[in-house]
Amino acid sequence: MRTCYYYLILAAWMLAGLCAQADTVKLRDGTALEGEIVSEDASSLSILLEFGGGTITQTRRIDKADVAAVIRWTPEQRAERQTTRDYEKLQRYQLSPSDSYEIAYYDQIINDVFRAFLKEHPNSPYSSKVTQHIIEWKAERDLVAAGNVKFRGRWSPAAEVAPQIERERGQQLLQQARALISQHRFDTAVQRLQLVVQMDKQPDLVSQAKPLLASTYQSATNLLDRQQRQLAGDISSAQQRVDQARVALSAAEASLRQPAGGNSQSTAQAQTAVTRARDELNAAQAYLAIVKSQLDGMKQKLASLKSPVPAATAPTNVTQVSTAQPAPSPAGESPEVLGGLVTWVKNNWVALAVIAAAILFFISRFLIKD
Questions:
Q1: Which domain, by its residues, includes 186?
Q2: 112 and 27 fall within a common domain
Q3: Number of domains in the chain
Q4: CA distances (Å), 312 to each of 96, 195, 200, 301, in order?
Q5: Which H/E stretch holds residue 154?
Q6: Which helix (H) or strand (E) is 276 found in, with range?
Q7: SS3 of 327, please?
Q8: Which of 35, 78, 42, 85 is nearest to 57 (CA)?
Q9: Would you say residue 44 lies in a domain?
Q10: Could you tell me which residues come within 8 angstroms of residue 364 by beta carbon, excluding any fewer than 6 positions away?
Q11: Residues 109 and 167 in one domain
């Protein structure tokens, strides 16, 4: 319990230190904005605001007529804040208590993360902690290089546990494939099942995967074919929209060129019509480009699905077999989750943009006050 209190106090102290180091813009209405002033001219300034621990950022432009006071960072405070931020980013890289990694991953984190931090911040107060991280990561790396692997929290010779690791990996792939099939993400499920089918030393898993692969492959090709035909129809509609926009723009430009007889209002209306027609044409062309890009991606996906699967090759170095698949991604999401999120975001990006704008406006107007 004392340890929890200690870390809470430490976190609060670090947060307070960061806030104290921020540029502060006090407005005449009593609002105080804390962030980084990124640009400034004679009439306005722009400040970079952060929310959610830096996961959301917003650059806000402020007229100087609305500013009551500005308190700026010193160069030393900026450097200190950047060092603390960089150190906090290192915390996402942790050794797994249950599994080991491949040698290349250990080398990547040691050199590109920990040593890069020491090089960037040679006099950092965190140097001793980062050095300790290097020692711990290198110790595990040397164990793996010597032919060992950590599996379920225990170190063993890699050759002994390789069959267990392969079996567990095959079971995971089958489970992932079934989940993907339930989500109608057949093409990704096919990729998982193809890997299982190639596991010659796991005949029971192969016998489960083969019939599932055949049915999933058929579902994947049928779905991609339907989507390809739909996108082809969308392209036709988008092209018609572009053609109509061009005709409307030509008509508006022709109307603008006609003598207005000294009527400035008519000229302004004609100019407005030209602007609107040009904007519509640009929007139509942008939409057409997006749909064409989607169709190209669909064709590539379909071609990849229908192409022969390369034969699996056994790993030349069994010491690098591991159930863990570490990724540099800080959040550590699985590829399946990321794929689903990407698809969902693509389908709902307009609504997300509106919601995000509303949230940022609400935060900036009502929650950032003295």
A1: 87-197
A2: no
A3: 3
A4: 28, 8, 10, 21
A5: strand 154-157
A6: helix 264-306
A7: coil
A8: 35
A9: yes
A10: 33, 49, 58, 60
A11: yes
Q: Would you say residue 363 lies in a domain?
A: no
Query: Number of C-alpha atoms within 13 angstroms, CB side, residue 158?
Result: 20
Which sign does the torsion angle of CA 144, 146, 147, 150 carry?
Answer: negative
Tens digit of each residue's pLDDT, the chain (370 residues): 333 433 333 344 343 334 434 688 999 998 888 888 888 898 899 988 877 656 677 888 999 899 999 888 888 888 888 898 899 989 999 999 999 999 999 999 999 999 999 999 999 999 999 999 999 999 999 999 999 999 888 999 988 988 888 999 999 999 999 999 999 888 889 889 999 999 988 999 999 999 999 998 888 888 888 888 888 888 988 899 899 989 988 888 888 787 755 566 777 888 888 888 888 889 888 888 898 888 888 888 777 776 655 444 333 333 344 444 444 443 333 333 334 444 444 445 545 554 555 555 555 544 444 4
Tokens coding 88:
């906090």
Same structural domain, 102 and 188: yes
Do 21 and 78 form a contact (C-beta atoms < 8 A)? Answer: yes
Residue whose C-alpha is closest to residue 109's, from 96, 98, 94: 94
127, part of any domain: yes
Same domain? For 226 and 175 the reply is no
Residue with tokens 């999120």: 341
Q: Answer left, alpha or beta for residue 52, where phi above 0 means left and psi between -120 and 50 means alpha.
A: left
- The reply to whether 36 falls in a domain is yes
Provide the 10 A C-beta neighbour count for residue 361: 11
Beta bridge partners of 329: none
Both 63 and 101 in one domain: the answer is: no
